[in-house]
Amino acid sequence: MNFPYGIPMTFASLGLIEPLLRALEALGYQTPTPVQTQAIPPVLAGRDLM
After folding, report:
1. What is the pLDDT of residue 9?
2. Under 8 Å CB-to-CB from 32, ≥6 apart: which residues?
3. pTM of the prediction?
4. Are 14 and 32 in contact (CB under 8 A)?
5. How far apart, in whole angstroms, are the C-alpha atoms of residue 34 and residue 9?
6. How far is the C-alpha of 1 from the C-alpha of 23, rounded, in Å?
7. Where are the domains of the chain?
8. pLDDT, tens digit, for every residue of 1-49?
9. With CB atoms 3.0 to 4.6 Å apart as the test, which of 16, 26, 31, 50 could cross-link to 20 if both were Cys?
10. Are 10 and 33 in contact (CB under 8 A)?
11. Cα dihedral angle (2, 14, 31, 37), rounded to 10 degrees?
12. 3-state class of 45 per DSSP?
């Protein structure tokens, strides 16, 4: 996967709560997809997403 500026985004840096971070880790997910990195912040801010 190509990351902007060569630095991978993490789920923690997206502001997810600890229970979700633990669940993602338990399922083996390490980094969010490009779509997730763009979609999660607006959703957490309470904005609509289409």
Report:
1. 86
2. 9, 10, 11, 14, 40
3. 0.73
4. yes
5. 9
6. 22
7. 11-45
8. 555 555 668 999 999 999 999 999 999 999 999 899 989 999 999 999 8
9. 16
10. no
11. -40
12. coil
